[in-house]
From TrEMBL:
It comes from the Eukaryota. One of its GO terms (molecular function) is dipeptidyl-peptidase activity. It holds the Pfam family Peptidase_S28. The lineage of its organism: Eukaryota, Metazoa, Chordata, Craniata, Vertebrata. SUPFAM superfamilies: alpha/beta-Hydrolases (SSF53474). This is Uncharacterized protein. Keywords: Glycoprotein, Hydrolase, Protease, Signal. The keyword Signal applies.
Length: 493
């Protein structure tokens, strides 16, 4: 249901009974959804956050469609002072994690600025179920345009019913929600005063081999030999895959859940991408302070992976590559790795809300097939992996949803809708980390004085959003301070 109708001149009357401590979301930073589950964001169940519900429209772009559904959101009025700003955190491609209602950098900003904090879960993720299932027909209502309209309707109704029409609203988000934060300010400038668009990929592209190029550079920054050894290992594995007599040993070396079978290029590509995903995930979230989310494995860093790859006592690079896989399995209590493409397709085709990929995999892959692309292929020579080229990614759109394998038109539409790198707006800041592969599709240099970038050397995905810790790099602390200074300046305008 919507918020209560009392005025925010006495904000406590609306939210005192809702005991939540702070504001944020599931993972504001998970645009590389991993089916390997090596870095799934956990959920802490004892955060004290309370769910609330908003009556939302199903289709904002059809006046003839009057259907509605309940969208989940959270509220924190702990720091709110009359007339203060309203911080609206945008949910992303997974369940809203109430742990973010207790921790996060923007709580510091909220406390200093007297802000009210709201978090709106993204449609089709978490408990926000607009339709009875996740059939391809129903996923037609899953898009960034519909999500932005959700934000606009939520903001309009909340402001009117809670006496917040004169308050300045600030949008926050990281990764895909960071893109939404920027686009919310772009498309609805009358509703949102400013946006913090952290680690936001703002340019849609079918092929995104630059992701793995950044992985190479990030590994090389730890030790120049590290990505070279990864490449040797990946090449050696591909050579072995050419000989079925090696499959039994490969199954044992990588502790696969079932005997390795390569019957098509899709089978080998899926297997190779699964193993490469261990490195991709660690690089993306390297040393981010994510323990509070219930995340397992934050102790596995680029330094740890490279130490394994540089350890000659483990054998050849291939053997060290297998040792990395076993390390990840042990860390995440996984007895084995499922590397069967057929099994994955069966799981992600399941359209039930209780299906194995309903946590976000089925939904996010659909969005990549219909809006963004973002496929992290091995089509560049300047990266350490091989064997999962662009056609492998595109074929999944057909295998899962029966969609076209040509995305050029939908990608063009997305960039026409939002402007891509040529975004024209104001009061949007774009923080990015140099280690994070997603910065390759983001804004890393100022577009204009009103569209500044904050490029943070040595940090990973959404690092500025996470709680501070004593070991934070000086440049990360300075970045958080700069963002706060921009917030202060923009709120004064």
């Amino acid at each position: 249901m919507a918020l209560s109708s009392c005025s925010y001149s006495s904000v406590k009357c609306a939210f005192t009974a809702v005991f939540v401590l702070s504001c944020l979301l599931y993972s504001p930073c998970s645009a590389r959804y991993r089916r390997t589950k090596s870095f799934e964001i956990g959920t802490r169940g004892n955060s004290g956050a309370v769910e609330r519900w908003f009556i939302q429209r199903l289709d904002h772009f059809s006046g003839a469609d009057s259907r509605v559904w309940k969208q989940r959101y959270f509220v924190n009025d702990t720091f709110y002072k009359d007339g203060g700003p309203v911080f609206l955190m945008i949910g992303g491609e997974g369940p809203a994690n109430p742990a973010w209602m207790e921790f996060g950098t923007w709580l510091t900003y909220a406390q200093k600025l007297g802000a009210l904090c709201l978090l709106l879960e993204h449609r089709f993720y978490g408990k926000s179920h607009p339709t009875e299932d996740l059939s391809t027909e129903n996923l037609h209502f899953l898009s960034s345009r519909q999500a932005l309209a959700d934000l606009a309707h939520f903001r309009t109704v909340t402001a009117e019913t809670q006496g917040l029409t004169s308050n300045k609203w600030i949008a926050f988000g990281g990764s895909y929600p960071g893109s939404l934060a920027a686009w919310f300010r772009l498309k609805y400038p009358h509703l949102v005063h400013a946006s913090i668009a952290t680690s936001a990929p703002i340019y849609a592209t079918v092929n995104f081999p630059e992701y793995l190029e950044v992985v190479w550079r990030s590994l090389a920054a730890e030790n120049p030999e590290c990505p070279l050894l990864v490449k040797k290992a990946a090449d050696a594995l591909i050579q072995r895959l050419a000989d079925p007599q090696t499959f039994e040993n490969i199954t044992k070396d990588f502790r696969l859940c079932s005997p390795l079978q390569i019957q098509s290029e899709m089978d080998s590509a899926y297997f190779l991408e699964t193993l490469a995903g261990n490195f991709m995930d660690v690089v993306q979230y390297n040393e981010d302070n994510r323990d509070f989310e219930g995340v397992v494995g934050t102790n596995i860093t680029i330094e740890v992976l490279c130490s394994v790859m540089l350890d000659s006592s483990l054998g050849e690079p291939y053997d060290r590559y297998a040792a990395v896989t076993r390390l990840m399995q042990n860390t995440f209590n996984q007895p084995c790795t499922n590397a069967e493409y057929r099994s994955y397709i069966l799981d992600i085709r399941n359209s039930s809300w209780s299906g194995p990929e309903a946590g976000g995999g089925r939904q996010w892959v659909y969005q990549t097939c219909t809006e963004f692309g973002f496929y992290q292929s091995t089509d560049s020579p300047n990266q350490p992996f091989s064997g999962f080229p662009l056609p492998y990614h595109l074929q999944q759109c057909a295998d899962i949803y029966g969609l076209s394998t040509s995305l050029d038109d939908v990608i063009q539409q997305t960039n026409e809708e939002y402007g891509g790198y040529d975004i024209r707006s104001s009061r949007i800041v774009f923080p990015n980390g140099s280690i994070d592969p997603w910065h390759a599709l983001g804004v890393t240099q100022d577009i204009s004085p009103e569209l500044p970038a904050v490029f943070i050397k040595g940090t990973a995905h959404c690092a500025n959003m996470y709680p501070s810790q004593p070991g934070d790099l000086p440049q990360l602390r300075l970045a958080r301070d700069r963002i706060f200074i921009l917030l202060q300046r923009w709120l004064a305008e």
